[in-house]
Write a structure and sequence with these properties.
The chain has 19 helices and 16 strands. With 480 residues, it is α/β, with parallel strands linked by helices. It has four domains: 128 residues, Rossmann fold; 166 residues, 3-Layer(aba) Sandwich (Rossmann fold), CATH 3.40.50.300; 85 residues, Helicase, Ruva Protein, domain 3, CATH 1.10.8.60; 41 residues, Arc Repressor Mutant, subunit A (Orthogonal Bundle), CATH 1.10.10. The strands form five sheets. The chain has a five-stranded parallel beta sheet with strand order 2-1-3-6-7, with helices on both faces. The protein is extended.
């Protein structure tokens, strides 16, 4: 049985006080009353009501003055003021001092009930918003980054040291290693936490649109620019701007980006007015920027400017000890989300997780655990609930390990394994280009060249697919 809503009424009109109390009690509310302002002051904190109904004028004091005190001492308490002399000034002053509403006497029952319901609904919405904000802070703060790996622990220490500075930070690491989560954690631990965190996926936009996205544009700057647009640098003013996949930015855009990061000034696309901002920049990439500098694809001055603080995230295959910790963390999270009761992983399932190479890193692991929870047939995750990409690789690894420990001719264990060296050795990346090109081309054809569907099928994001197509010379055929 739910607890009734507690309403506290303060009014020196005893007839009205009793009448409202009786009616609201009949409506299911738990009602307490005070016949004077002095009594209301002493009872309010003791009663801790869910809603307060208060008269504007008392014989022993000013209800509006008391309202201001209540808003300071009980900021989450909805207050409805009542008055027999409610003119525009009284209503304006009541609302200006934090009242939810001002009702005019005589008060109609249905009007009172409607106002109370609205006030309680707004209170519930505010509580839910606060809960969601707390959940987001928990999800994207350091609490959600789980690791016992020494390299990660050193990264956590570095985040504590630099979070409250304005230093530009570069986060590098493979796709799925948690670069965005680290960026959000830095923001949440900084003094800018209450200001905007603005994220831009640089690789997802063509160059012209990316410049407009970052710096904004004025009307007429390009075809289709029918109005002014505020850029992400300005949207993140006093907060944090996270530029993901920064290695994809063109050389021309890098010049403008360098100035923005050095001077925190820029002009919108097509504009002449200079805009100044107080924006903290965090950048991320899965590319080797030093190699890109040597190849002339990335400006050296920009590289040194963004690498004031460099955080390099290790891949999941380099953090094998973290796999059980992360797997159980995601298990608890997914079980709570889908209301499932699963105690853990079987030995075979955990061995399969440990044997997998995790090319998709933490993102792949989280998705695998989510799938396993949804498909689990018992109170523990078994191998058959894991994605086939994990179980096949685990089986292949086991069979290769078994065959390599025996002589192919006799089946007996061999003390000396001889590997034949090919006459011509080429880099592994070049050797794999042919098969990789064929796999991507076949997937594109199977999906009628739909890149979104193809990326999903291959387990990569659309930007990575685009880069691979460009690198391998794959182009969509022109319709005849």
């Amino acid at each position: 049985m739910s607890t009734p809503v507690k309403i506290f009424i303060a009014d020196d009109d005893r007839w009205l006080l009793e009448s409202m109390s009786d009616w609201l009690s009949s409506e299911g509310f738990a009602v307490s009353t005070a016949p004077s302002l002095e009594k209301a002051k002493t009872e309010l904190s003791r009663l801790e009501p869910d809603l307060f109904l208060c008269d504007v004028r008392f014989e022993d004091g000013d209800g509006l003055k008391f309202l201001r005190q209540v808003r300071r001492s009980h900021p989450d308490l909805p207050v409805i003021m009542m008055s027999g002399y409610a003119g525009p000034d009284a209503a304006r002053e009541s609302l200006a001092n934090g009242a939810f509403e001002l009702l005019s006497k005589p008060i109609i029952d249905q009007e009172l009930r409607t106002t109370i319901d609205r006030a309680l609904n707004q209170k519930n919405i505010e509580k839910e918003n606060a809960r969601l904000k707390e959940e987001l802070d928990r999800r994207f703060g350091m609490e959600s980054i789980v690791s016992h790996d020494l390299r990660m622990l050193k990264i956590f220490e570095m985040i504590d040291q630099v979070a409250d500075t304005k230093a530009t930070i570069l986060i590098t690491g493979e796709n799925g290693t948690g670069k965005s989560m680290i960026a959000r954690a830095i923001h949440k631990k900084s003094a800018r936490r209450k200001k905007p965190f603005v994220e831009v996926a640089c690789g997802a936009l063509p160059d012209t649109l990316l410049e407009s996205e970052l710096f904004g544009h004025v009307a007429g700057a390009f075809t289709g620019a029918i109005g002014n647009k505020t850029g992400k640098f300005l949207q993140a003013d006093q907060g944090t701007l996270f530029l993901d996949e920064i290695g994809t930015a063109s050389t021309a855009l890098q010049i403008k980006l360098l100035r923005a990061l050095q001077e925190f000034e820029f002009e919108p696309l097509g504009g002449t007015d200079t805009i100044s901002v107080d924006t903290r920049a965090i950048l991320a990439t899965n590319e080797n920027l030093e190699k890109a500098v040597n190849e002339g694809r990335f400006r050296q001055d920009l590289f040194y400017r963004i690498q004031v603080i460099h955080i390099e995230l290790p891949s999941l295959r380099e953090r094998l000890d973290d796999i059980p910790i992360l797997a159980n963390h995601f298990l608890r999270k997914v079980c709570a989300e889908y209301n499932r009761k699963i105690s853990g992983f079987s030995n075979n399932a955990m061995n399969a997780l440990l044997s997998h190479s995790w090319p998709g890193n933490i993102r792949e692991l989280e998705n695998a655990i989510q799938r396993s929870v949804l498909l689990a047939k018992s109170d523990a995750i078994e191998v058959d609930a894991l994605p086939s990409s994990i179980t096949k690789r685990s089986s292949l690894s086991d069979s290769q390990s078994l065959s390599s420990s025996h002589s192919p001719a006799t089946g007996h264990q061999s003390d000396n394994v001889v590997f034949q060296t090919p006459a011509t050795i080429i880099p592994l990346s070049e050797a794999l280009e042919g098969p990789e090109r064929q796999i991507i081309l076949s997937a594109l054809k199977a999906n009628s060249w739909n890149r979104n569907l193809t990326a999903d099928l291959l387990g990569i994001n659309r930007t990575t697919l685009y880069k691979k197509m460009k690198k391998l010379g794959i182009e969509e055929p022109t319709p005849q």
